[in-house]
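Local shape tokens:
==================
===
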Amino acid sequence: MAITTVQPVDETKDPIARDGLALNPPQKILIAGGVIAAILLFVYLLATQHVSQPMLLGIGLLLGYTLFHARFGFTSAFRRMASVGNGQSMRAHMLMLAIAVTLFAPILAYGTTFFGGPVAGYVSPVGVSLVVGAFIFGIGMQLGGGCASGTLYALGGGRTVMFVTLIFFIVGATIGAYHLPFWTEEMPAFAPVSLATSTGLGYGGAWLVSIAFFGLIAWLTLVIEKKKKAPKMAPLPSEKGWKRIFRGSWPLFAAAIVLAVLNALTLMTRGTPWGITSAFALWGSKIAAAFGVDVASWGYWQGANAASLQASIFTDSTTVLNLGVIIGAFIASAAGGLFKFTKVTAGNFAASVVGGLMMGYGARLAFGCNIGAYFGGIASFSLHGYIWGILALAGTFVALYLRPLFGLSVPKSNDSVC
């Protein structure tokens, strides 16, 4: 079956995918609004929460700012690799992961948080739940127009349809939380496997194995690019010199370094790596509870999770990080003069509904998304992170055949990749 290609119906006005190298003037009123919102939220958190929460807001702002400026994607990276063999973004992923494991190894082996608390990586079981969830997520992110981090930073950049994706991402995550005990208790699974602590390698040995694997993947992407004669990514407008920090696109490799450092800072601040989708399950469950649903009786909200359901969302560190990512991306888009609400069509609306539901549900089953499971899991030396990446890539291949049904494009071998 051939993969048909169609011209995307909405991306010509998408501020994140806009062609052309001319920079727009900064949207100063929007920049001021974003900065004021960030300051007000920071002050509120400083007055009402533990000091770690405003610190995490600051980290979230930098994460969103970085993601937008570099257009650093996971969805697009997998799609470029699967469709035309372009591995530029995948090599950036490997650099990001290499730096992350280098920073995580000593923190996990010997470290404590900035406040003296314990640290723990994301190491999760390998079983049916992971396989099904990651595969579903891989399909969903290609239909929904972005992964978990992509949804947040595209939303901050003004891509209107991502509001739809986020809403149904939350719905899917809530349903996934309700169903999770079935997948984790009734379906077969192996115990969590850490390359560092489950294999006898230690963190030093696990680091060496990880670095070798990342190098192998980077080399394979170069081989595939040469064999397929893959097109290069389209250039994006940018300032020169130090002004590039504030306006224009960042190099992918620079963003990879920054994201790895910020994830390590997240680990040192709250004791666990960066995550996104657990907050979606929390938001959706709180909304369901407001409508009379007895979510407190769900297995997902028993034990350690029970307190989160009863407390303010601002006590939830993942919620604070997510808000920071959205505001940071908003400020970055306004600085580049790119914030603009975009057109929603029947096709991308339907794709966002289906994709959001699949991502939300898949993320709960797979113990995380592209950030919590893939980035955070691999950085934590967890086997489940590698399996998540393989299954999500498999879902991407399937989604290449589904995207045209919704009027979404698939890159062709003779296209420049943007």
